Structures are given as C-alpha cells and as structure tokens.
Amino acid sequence: MRAxxxxxxxxxILTFLGGSAQSQGTPSYEPYPVTLQVNxxxxxxxxxxxMCPVIGPRCDDLKVVDVxxxxxxxxxxxxxxxxxxxxxxxxxxxxxxxRITVQ
Length: 103
Prior knowledge:
By secondary structure, the chain is an alpha+beta fold. Helix content is 21%, strand content 40%. It has a domain at 32-102: Sandwich (Immunoglobulin-like). It has one helix spanning 2-23, and strands spanning 32-36, 41-43, 55-59, 65-70, 73-78, 82-89, 95-102. The strands form 2 sheets. Strands 1-7-6-3 form a 4-stranded mixed sheet, with no helix packed on it. A hairpin with a 5-residue loop joins strand 6 (82-89) and strand 7 (95-102). The N and C termini lie far apart (68 Å).
C-alpha cells in the first residue's frame, strides 16, 4: 500500500512540475510594443510577429496611427505623438495586438 501511495505521489509531483515547465513556453498575449516617430512606418509583415497576409486592421486612435500599404504589405504609420492599440488578423486566424507609441 505504501508503495502505491509513493508512486501516486511521485506521479502527481512530476505532473505538476511538467505542467509548470510547459506553461513557461506558452506564447505571450501581451501587446507587442512598437515605438515610432511621426511619419515613420512599422511594416507589420516583416516584423515576424504575424503570419502574412494580414486582414482586418484595427486601431483605437487613428489620430495617432494610420493604416498604410507598404511594398511588404500592411503597415502602421505614426501620425502624431501619443499611444494606441492596433491589431491585425493573421492568416492563421489569430489576432495580434500592438501597443504603438508615437514620439
């Protein structure tokens, strides 16, 4: 009986430690920080943060950032100083959020 309890306890410990190790490898869902100057463009597709092509760009404040086309695909252009959140839908169906600060 003691051997069975020891085995079960050992399996529980391994499961707990294995689960915490796996959770460290999960992707971050925090907004990706981007800092731009006025008139500078952040090319979304070449950033490596999304699978392209992207669709459905959204920005909270279009007075700070505008959505533009670039030779490499969609981009975010700094319009005036401030900060806003923008996002795009990746070709794999996931939406990626960017925290864009324009200086």
